[in-house]
Amino acid sequence: MGTPRLHCRRDECAAEADFSSLGRHTTIFHVPHGSDRVETANYDLIVVGAGPAGSACAITAARAGARVLLLEKDRFPRHKVCGEFVSPESSRLLEELLGGNPFKDKPQIHATHIFMEHRSVSMRISPAAQSIPRFELDAALAESARSSGVEVQEETGVPEVRENQLFEVITPAKTFTAHAVVNATGRWSQLTQRPAVPEKWIGLKAHFHEVNPSPSVDLYFFDGGYCGVQPVGDDKVNACALVRSSAARSLEEVLALHPFLARRSQDWKQLFPTVTTSGLYFRKPQTDHNGMLLAGDAAGFIDPFAGDGISLALHSGTLAAESLLPFLQSRCSLEQVRRQYHSAYMKHLAPAFRNAARVRMVLSAPAFLRSMLISLAARRPFAQALVSSTRIKARD
Questions:
Q1: Does domain 3-80+135-195+282-352 have CATH number 3.40.50.2000?
Q2: Contact in structure between 188 and 277 (CB atoms under 8 Å)
């Protein structure tokens, strides 16, 4: 008949959670399902969106004993607009979420090459990052969620969530109830308020055949945006671009916007139709909306050149689940959870957004200022500090 909810006594509410384990997936709590609960719900937690953030959240909560439903509007596997760069800061967390490393044979990314104007600069990545296609990564995380006890429903969109005594999660087929909901549905979520977008950015992505690509992520900056290229295995590269709609409307147009990229791509063969996403926007991170915690791109969309989008998704999803567990144990209120999650998010994750936004401002500046940046980036200490500032700091 569902899972009842224990009374929450304020004198039993947990103090602010210790997030020193951020980046280490552990079973923290056992969620009780005793007979003294008075409010019934189908689930302790419903997570909407089964990308890296949603699956990480669902896995973390389920392994701690919560009854979790994970809803995904698409069917796996599927391509997503993404640079597919998995930074070394998240490698251990990803391995723990997956219960191993099924992607150990995927390309290792040992360097970053930045091409700006007619100059370039290179930076070493140590330890190496990984290149994992979202086509494979998201499906593997969803399967790990199933193995962890999560009920996963694909091809199930969620147009509305209502908060009453319980959360009502409305799908075309039926309505589910839960004590808590995490929205991990991405940057253009139906479940959050859409801000006005002053200038339109679009994302475009496809894989191409390239003979023996270098083990690096190569970023090509030009007026109106940039394009990142990196190997994804088997003589294939991922090309993912973020551009103003006034600069380009197709990947073919994007590849012609930088002379080095145009020469490199002239013999490429596209392997599947271009995947696009439009109406991209940048804003300060938001950690909750209408009672739901926000994770992944629903909380904040970081500039793709930072290379930390997947890492932020994994960490924010895990952090959302860890924040909710005391509430699901009836040791604190949902309002306390929201405050604690916001505080931890701002402390551990938000600095990457702020620093990436500063770099974006410089990259959008006139050519002579961009030229100054590339001159500074050529100095190794400055370049390494620039990269480090947009990354999550791994925690022991």
A1: no
A2: yes
